[in-house]
Amino acid sequence: MNFxxxxxxxxxxxxxxxxxGTMRDYVDVAIKRGLREIGISDHSPMPxxxxxxxxxxPDELEDYWQELxxxxxxxxxxxxxxxxxxxxxxxxxxxxxTQSLISRYxxxxxxxxxxxxxxWGFDNPDAQQEWEHWSLQDAWVAYFDAVAAxxxxxxxxxxxxxxxxxxxxxxxxxxxxxxxxxxxxxxxVRDADCCLEISSAGLRKPAAEIYPRAxxxxxxxxxxxxxxxxxxxxxPEDVAYAMQDCLTCLHRYGVHHVACFEQRQRTMMDFTx
Length: 273
Ligand SMILES: [Zn+2]
Ligand SMILES: [Zn+2]
Fold this sequence. Notes:
alpha/beta; TIM Barrel; 6-stranded parallel sheet; globular; binds zinc ion
């Protein structure tokens, strides 16, 4: 398998206040690990400055873009494509805000994420007590419905870590209502022609499992949904983390291609050649 040709499309910078290393550090590690392409996709601002301490500030977007430009040139001189991207938390009540972020720059791709149910940042380590107010079933249904809405918005190229809800071990229950919500979500991803992210970040969290779990990969693959790989690196040493495990998992379910993006145009790359 040709691992080095697979891009890592999900990584952060200190602008989000919970990542370390400069863009140049991420580029250097990617080159050292033999990658030919990466994408930097830091957390965008949110409407009304929501949860501002976990993301760049609205007035930082221009600096972020300029820094991406420098990283693009730095990578290019060293044989690495650096794609310029953004990870946006989708709020179904504020699609115009998301659209305005997307319209401002010629991004290579846009990652859509769900880290909140209402105001609850369910993947925030300091907000885990909120589980007292939710049944596992209701939380998972609400989560899949929110992910489905993000895909249906048509704003995103990649739907990130599509079972993030399990991060702290609150795994998807074996429940007909949850399964139905999962299928609705995958159908929305397919119909919107989005890619699903296969993310190694779950392996570094209490879930200790790739996002999404194998059963979802199998189901998505059978529906013909495309995948993109992301490490969700918040430190340079996590670039390309467990890429081999992720690709082996895709291969097991008959997936031989991953998505590549430039200027929001997708091409599919055969990683088995
Ligand atoms: Zn983050
Ligand atoms: Zn991320």
